[in-house]
Write a structure and sequence with these properties.
Elements (H helix, E strand, L loop, with lengths): L8 H17 L5 H8 E9 L2 E3 L1 H14 L2 E12 L2 E11 L4 E12 L5 E11 L21
Parallel strand pairs: 1-6
Antiparallel strand pairs: 1-2, 3-4, 4-5, 5-6
Helix pairs in contact: 1-2, 2-3
């Protein structure tokens, strides 16, 4: 993972989550190794009031590796101040069982090496449109994760 310094925050967030998900679903690498590549050992992530440390994040990521979802991030806006980023984005996902979109308000802190140290996320599911699919790879400031 590259450091945030001097990087467009919209692109940084899109690249961070896209790369993390791609590494999770590609191959059979241990989930803990992938989590550690993208997160500091003292990671604390609070999503909608639920606190996850490293162990809980690893447990949360295991199903993603099993179900191999397609996902893309449409970053609408992002601001950086030093090692912190605030962003608003839409996560579009599709796996074997379902598809959907989630609006996310993200506030995060990153280490000098680009790994996530802290994150607070507020989310809300968006209505599913009939026949909707994740946006194409050329969506602004986001990339499709290869299947």
């Amino acid at each position: 993972m590259r450091a945030l310094d001097g990087t467009d925050p919209r692109q940084f967030i899109a690249d961070f989550f896209t790369s993390f998900m791609a590494d999770l679903v590609r191959g059979d690498e241990d989930v803990a190794l992938v989590v550690d590549r993208y997160h500091t050992p003292d990671i604390v992530q609070i999503a909608d009031g639920s606190r996850m440390d490293r162990a809980k994040l690893i447990a949360h990521a295991r199903p993603a590796q099993k179900h191999q979802p397609d996902a893309s991030w449409e970053v609408h806006e992002a601001l950086a101040d030093g090692d912190r980023i605030a962003a608003r984005y839409t996560l579009h996902f599709q796996n074997r069982k379902r598809e959907g979109s989630v609006e996310v308000h993200f506030f995060g802190q990153f280490a000098d090496d680009g790994r996530m140290r802290r994150a607070h996320l507020l989310t809300r599911p968006l209505p599913v449109r009939a026949g909707a699919a994740p946006p194409p790879p050329e969506a602004p400031a986001g990339r499709q994760v290869p299947a």
